[in-house]
# Entry
Amino acid sequence: MAWLAFLLEALAGSILLALVLLTCVDVFGRYFFGNAVDGATEMTEIALAIIVFAEIPVITWRGTHVVIDVLDGVFGRWVKGLETLSAVLISAMLYLLGDTVMGQAARALRRNVTTEYLHLPVGDIIQYIGIMCWLTAACTLSWGIYRIFMRREQHS
# Structure
């Protein structure tokens, strides 16, 4: 899984660098030449989608998402059991979300929906989002299973 996390972070980092360069060129062109980069808004939207959905599986697999543990001290072990249940439920919901998104992608591809300026196929972008939802579902489930075995080792 470490190599997949590295690849996704490399993808997100390279897209972020490209986004920074695009923004610089767009602003420079707009203010000094009176001409912005055509399709910069679309490219920015697509880049943000790629960055966000590339990082969600990595954050989930590492368990580095934001957690508020105010009730852990009050409920103790009982809340820890809910952690596993929540991992299963979140995984199931992400899988269903991925299915729904892939259905939307198939519809967009059937209808040949493209972006307004660059005429990029919207279905491909939506498919990427669906695949990342499925990958995040798998990461969430594996993270929950990992937590179960780590808890058992700690109590042994």
User: Anything to note?
Assistant: The chain has one domain: 2-155. The two ends are 27 Å apart (CA to CA). Residues 77-110 form the longest helix (34 residues).
